[in-house]
Amino acid sequence: MQRWSFFWLLVAKLAVAELDCDGVTCEVESIHLLQHAHTREVRKSKAPERPEALASPFAEVFVLSINEEKYKLSKAELKDQGIVAVSRVKGFNASRDSELSEALALLTEYGNANSLHHTVSNWMLCLHTSPGNPPNFGAANSEFWRNFFRSSPRNVSELLDRDQHNCVPKVVAIAAAHLRLWKELAEGKLQTKEVEEKDPWYLVMEEDVDLCPYWRQRMEKELPQAPADAEIIKLYFFGHWRKEDEVKVSVRNDSEPATVTPFLDARDPLRGFDLFKAASYEFLHGASWSSVPVAGFYAGTQAYLIRPSSARKLLKQIRGKPFQDIDMTMMLSANNYVWRRVLAQGRPENVDLLQDGATESHGSAARTATATAPQCNMEPPSDQFW
Prior knowledge:
This is Hexosyltransferase. Keywords: Signal. By secondary structure, this protein is of the alpha/beta class. Strands 2-1-3-8-5-9-7-6 form an 8-stranded mixed beta sheet, with helices on both faces. It has a two-stranded antiparallel ribbon with strand order 4-10. The radius of gyration is 21 Å and the shape is globular. The two termini are 41 Å apart.
């Protein structure tokens, strides 16, 4: 492993020399190139010789992206795995005022920006967790005391106006980006090819997501076991999970136990007592403040399967609802299920190839700052007492 580490570092250095960019940009782009090259070698050793021979369980892939280079990386990796029907869906860049205004306008069009869910406030948004991004307790504390003697913000515009730590724009931009994708999917504007199936699955991926080794084999085998009422199926989740949400299939003989499927029913994502139990369990088992996710159950929109009919239902359900995280809105508006053993993983921004074994497994705990995040092809870590 060590000799290959030095080899990939040499590739990265050569890449920097060839890129026409400034030092910081060169470093970022060479890391992207390095990630793609290394991932290809890892998958080559694990994947079947002819991935294109496997049936594709979805019609197309839509990569939600604000960064052209990250999209190209995702497209190249999918092509390596035999998936060529890949399109970019442009997201909203929260760091640009014009795009943030567009995002707010779209949410306002659907009446989703006029009020706030009771879980949404400036300090709470600073506590948001995602894989690789622990909660910002300092910013949350500052926002809390700054607004302690003020009335709560009434809508998304006021939420943005009061934001002093840049905690709000990204949440708004992500919500609007997925909303626009659903709108265009429902209207048939994203699809680039005709399919025989009336209401096929489409795979939505955010730009910083990698699919796990063997994902195609597993999806081909396991997707037929998904519940018939599934409208959205997540390939990845973070936050908490409940064993009681396992989807089971009854067998013919009533005396035999029901068979557990690969899926979890993503329901009641904000059930208060369960969140308390999960966080308490993790603290008592040695988790630190920075590794206990400040998130509900089955959080995340990194990768999911969706049908056009599901997109139409989401658009109908979201209209006039109070604003909250788009993953929570999605789960409260349609029948969501998740793969218990996840099929996708957040892509790390940096790879330490000098550490032996750091990239040996795509799901290595060394590559995520959230210790409780599920890992590729593995059972999710326990976070419940019962």
